[in-house]
Input
Amino acid sequence: MNQPSNQTGANNTFSSQPASQTNPFTADLKGEFTSNFGTNTNAVSQIFKEGGFVSNNRTKYMIIGGVVLVVLVIAGFMLMGGEGGTDEFADDSAAGEEGTKTDEDAAEGDEATADADADGDAAKDPAADGKSDATADAAATTDATSAASATTDASAKTAAQTAAPAATGSIALTSPESGASVSYDETQGPATFSWNGDGGYIVFSRKADMTPEVLRIRVSGNSYRFNHPWPGNWYWKVENDSGASEVRSFTVSAPTRRNISVAAPAAGGTVAGTGGQVQWQGDNSVAFYRVELSTGDWANPQFRFATRGNSVQLQGVTAGQYQMRLGAFSEVSGRWEYTQAMPVTVQ
Output
């Protein structure tokens, strides 16, 4: 395993420079060559210094012979000791190498330990992965359960929309009948909803399961007047302390458009910019009419003329090519309704 260079470990235990080797026999050899006669003086030189060979005294010869023998023995021992020292040194070197190898082995052991730890982590990782997988599987199962629940909820809602909740109390709805239809018309009065039973709350929704509620209104009697409900499908019920009524539906259709059309000028025709007449066919339940001329969009037309009648006289319109349309403010829908724009030339 590779160790980062800035970390300490088995590989950084030893210095990069080799340590000096010490002969374990140096002290012993040094003692062998140290003379008892004085510093830096061996036995032979000491004898020559004292004039041991001047006399032919037998005793001296014997002493000299003994000394030579001792010297030879010491020299032989030195030679043998040197070889032994070399071997020992070699053995020490080998031991040192073995020590180094041991240290390297220790380093490798540390690396092996690190690898083992890594393997242990790896051994843990599969468990962790297994745990993660189990968690993921559990999450997936939860998601699947949630999806199934969502599907069940969706199915339940669809079923609820198909079959409205049944009555749970003594309230009986009377009017309008379920499935009744009416056109949106602001000229008519509000729609009346009635029931048999005490008051409580009348609830309106766009869905058969009554969620979400659009309106929840407290009522004290047994009827309620709904002022111009917007077009679309509606559902309603009444609730009080005794329970809830059945759910009924009704439909409000879009308001009937006003039947208006331009009579003059014709599409592509001409009209005078001042004094020119624009005429149209009107309808009932119209509060105002207006004629608009534009060279661009209709947010800000260049010219606009309003009247209650069925015609208007243009004043001050610059000559040119225009698009013209007729508008009627419908009392039924409560908004402006326009004809299709047509091209005209203003002279």
Remarks:
- The CA atoms of residues 2 and 238 lie 79 Å apart.
